[in-house]
Amino acid sequence: MRWTLAYIPTLRETPTEAETISHRLMLRAGLVRKLSAGTYSYLPLGTRILLKVIRIVREEMTRAGALEVLLPALQPAELWKRSGRYTQMGPEMLRFRDRHGKEMVLGPTHEEVITHLVAGELRSYRDLPKTLFQIQTKFRDEARPRFGVVRSCEFLMKDAYSFDRNVAGLAVSYERMYDTYLRIFARCGLEVLPVEAETGIMGGDDSHEFMVLANSGEDTVVRCSSCSYAASLDRAGVGLPIVHRSSSQAAPMPIQPVDTPGIFSVEKVSQLLKVQPSQLIKTLIYLSDGNPIVVLVRGDHEVNEGKLRRLTHAASLQMADAATIQRITGAPVGFCGPVGLKKVKVIADPAILHIVNAVTGANEADKHLMNVNAGRDFQPDEVADIRIPQEQDPCPQCGKPIRLLSAIEVGHIFKLGTKYSAALDATFLDEDGRQRPFVMGCYGIGVSRILAAIIETHHDSSGILWPLGVAPYLAVIIPINHEDTAIREAAEGLHREALEAGLEVLLDDREVSGGVKMKDADLVGFPVRILLSEKTLQKGSIEVKHREKAEPLLVKPAEVIPTLKKLLDRERHPAR
User: Fold this and answer.
1) What would you report as the CA-atom Rg of the chain, rounded to the nearest whole angstrom?
2) Interatomic CA distance for residues 537 and 484, integer angstroms
3) CA dihedral 266, 267, 273, 276 (to 10 degrees)
4) What does pTM read for this prediction?
5) What b/e string do you get for 52-87 counting C-beta neighbours within 10 Å, with b at 16 or more?
6) Tens of pLDDT along 315-350?
7) 3-state secondary structure of 130
8) Lower Cβ count inside 10 Å, N or C end of the chain?
9) CATH topology identical between 256-383 and 473-572
10) H or E element, residue 500
11) What are phi and psi of 219, to 5 degrees?
């Protein structure tokens, strides 16, 4: 391919809209262009890279025994209503009526569709197990599209679904996909951290996210500083605090009511009463499947609703409205406390038990209580880890301090169980003659996100550093003076030889300076830059520079193609 025939509109200046390194470089290197908020057009170079990622995904999924399908993006709302997710999805799901008045959605995901497809098709246990996958466009009406293709409204995703007879079969399928994901990401040049994750609206039991650590990542993972424990922020447990009692520590004091007129936030109450936020007890009222529960966390902590939902086995969990709070506590929002509450379950985070002389709401408007102590003044019905971890909290596995790290999620796998098959009557005839629902797994990869994750972790001050497996071209040939006959003919000859050898190379035949060509080569991120100049040709050599190495090599013209072949061979067979 010749640069003059290609379409690579590089930019010298960074667009003001670009927030992250990957967003900036994808725009500057001519990979994508923004159409509207959250939607991007892939230019030829970006499409070329995207197709290479797709090829890797497809090869590894096929290697794992998965079978490719292609499912409709346009889906009837009725399927989503049957699964119960039509209302759960919220405003992110694009909904409309067709010309016949039928309710339709643009698929944000395909659990309902794939389950509907196999219902009645996979009839017997002899047809199982099966894993089906697709690479398809998804649509989500994001409230805040950001970071370029990392959080967009339209994106490319690989989703796969396994169908097994039982939980044991699902465990085998899940493990196979786990290993497949590690191979996919390794081939894309990504170092991923698998972490325990929340299942969220997808449902099911176990789940793992595959995270790429990056400073600009919009997700947060918890990682132990000592052991192997790793989890997403919304799933991570918190170890029990180590409490060091001393004789100088304050003893419990009598409860003291205080006036706090119009003051109810943690920050303002702390300032008024001259105490740290960690000395406050936040009292929150939730409705768990419609039943009120009281939740207690420290003033500087936040409730993890995923943990609370699992703890209470709730199908639905939401904050109580003001009227419910008034009825249960006798106080308006902001002045609730655990002292004196009756006929309602109270769940406390373990840290609550270690606060001496805490401050809480008084269950009376414009009043708080000082010197409240668990065990003496109130007794929780249940004590459980229900909060979001913070930096340096104890690891739930070994007790050592944890770290919070920014990351980009590139994959997520779930053990769905029978959530969708039971709801959509997708059953098979088992060996004992009984109809049973499929036991399902779900496995997603953000294909377009992979490009952003690669750039975030493979770049320098000059541009992108594409791994060989996904690079748009293996090498770019740069004649410093294309008007010089000897240089031009040498470059053209090398270009022909590379194409005949089956190598993907780009000849920069533009009539621009050598400096512009080299800057563009580094910006786009070709793994190898082949430079032909009068000086090197006079020495009977051609300059070959690996993008990630500081010093170039001087190679005999006859050795350039074998050098490129060896480079490719090492990428395909890294053990050699």
Assistant:
1) 30
2) 12
3) 90
4) 0.89
5) bbbebbbebbeebebeeeebebebbbebbebbebbe
6) 888 999 999 999 999 999 999 999 999 999 999 999
7) strand
8) C
9) no
10) helix 485-500
11) -100, 160
Contact between 466 and 458 under an 8 Å Cβ cutoff? The reply is yes
- For 417, the 3-state DSSP assignment is strand
Strands (E), 321-453: 345-348, 358-361, 367-372, 382-383, 402-417, 427-429, 435-437, 439-446
* Alpha helical stretches, state H, 14-166: 21-28, 44-63, 77-83, 85-88, 111-118
Buried b (16+ CB within 10 A) or exposed e, 265-290: ebeebbeeeebebebbbbbbbbbbee
The class level of CATH for 21-190+418-455 reads alpha beta
Residue 518 to residues 146, 524, 572, Cα–Cα distance (Å): 31, 10, 27
Distance in angstroms (rounded) separating the CA atoms of residues 65 and 45: 31
Map out the domains of the chain as residue ranges.
21-190+418-455, 256-383, 473-572
Q: 225: Cβ–Cβ under 8 A, 6 or more apart, which residues?
A: 395, 400, 401, 402, 403
| Residues 6+ away with beta carbon under 8 Å from 99 | none
Long-range contacts of 559-563 (CB under 8 A, 24+ apart): 560/494, 560/497, 560/530, 561/494, 561/497, 561/498, 561/501, 561/503
Sheet holding 281-288, edge to edge: 317-319, 281-288, 291-298, 345-348, 382-383
Can you name the CATH fold of 256-383?
YbaK protein (3.90.960)
* Model confidence pLDDT, tens digit, residues 420-476: 999 999 999 999 999 999 999 999 999 999 999 999 999 999 999 999 999 999 999
Degrees, nearest 5: CA angle 268-272-276: 75
Q: Which fold has domain 473-572?
A: Rossmann fold (3.40.50)
For 114-171, write each residue's pLDDT tens digit. Answer: 999 999 899 999 999 999 999 999 998 888 888 888 889 899 999 999 999 999 999 9
